[in-house]
Amino acid sequence: xxxxxxxxxxxxxxxxxxxxxxxxxxxxxxxxxxxxxxxxxxxxxxxxxxxxxxxxxxxxxxxxxxxxxxxxxxxxxxxxxxxxxxxx
Length: 88
Fold this sequence. Notes:
The protein has one domain (about 1-85). The chain contains no helices and six strands. It has strands at about 1-10, 10, 25, 25-40, 40-50, 80-85. Strand 4 (about 25-40) and strand 5 (about 40-50) form a beta hairpin. The two termini are about 25 Å apart. The model has no long low-confidence stretch (mean pLDDT about 80).
């Protein structure tokens, strides 16, 4: 079992043309993954991204993508996944 944390440091004092909100607090996202080897060539992983379903911060209407930065923050909320990996 693995646990990962992604901390997004605060974005402060950017020019208003880029960021409508002058200060954005730091944000933490937690992910959880369970992995099991299946035979010699397969791995099975089950996981949750954004475990606590943290919302992205509101950055204002100056940003055109859902009023936040989708390349930095988790805009889809909590996500579950199943992954099978084959190696040969």
